Please model this.
Amino acid sequence: MYIVCSDLEGVFVPEVWINVADKTSIPELRRTTRDEPDYHLLMRQRMEILDRHGLKLHDIQEVISRIRPLPGAVDFIGWVKERSQLIVVSDTFIQFADPLMQQLGRPTLFCHTLVMDETNRIIDFKLRQPDPKRRTVEALQSLKYKVIAMGDSYNDCSMLQQADVGILFRPPENVVRDFPQFPVVHQYDELKVILQSYFDGKPPSK
Model:
């Protein structure tokens, strides 16, 4: 039986940090895991930028409250859940995710946690575990599931490499260039065709 693991931002919703950058007019915050493979470095840079500009958790949550799913995302999630199980495996945080997951029909979410001080300033973050996306796939495979994984960024690629099937969805050219082994898909309808072929036991020929 196949189970589907998917990234969140860039696949089902717009990139949170790009929205924060645009709302606050801080272009440095536009840098995401599509640009920087080192997630710890990226988060440290983000926290330093937030501190420099006096931004706190509630400022980011205000931006997130206005984000809507990508066109077609909700219907696609419903389609997958009618045929298989879906786990959203994300490097977002519990403190960010709730309004987004509510709009997506609350698929199962694995993500991280932020640490704040008494003033609501973000001072640290706690990963669920090291290399959590890959290890999620490993855990499912240990339960005898086959895994189809989807993502768009550098931080998704260890998950895609571990999965039985890895798919890049609307990735930037630099990720495509660095990981040419993965098929690239740009539309949910294309994803449905590929996923259905595996669900039916008739994977597409390579």
Q: What stands out?
A: The longest strand covers residues 108-116. The chain has a mean pLDDT of 95. The beta strands are 2-6, 86-93, 108-116, 122-126, 146-151, 165-169, 184-185.
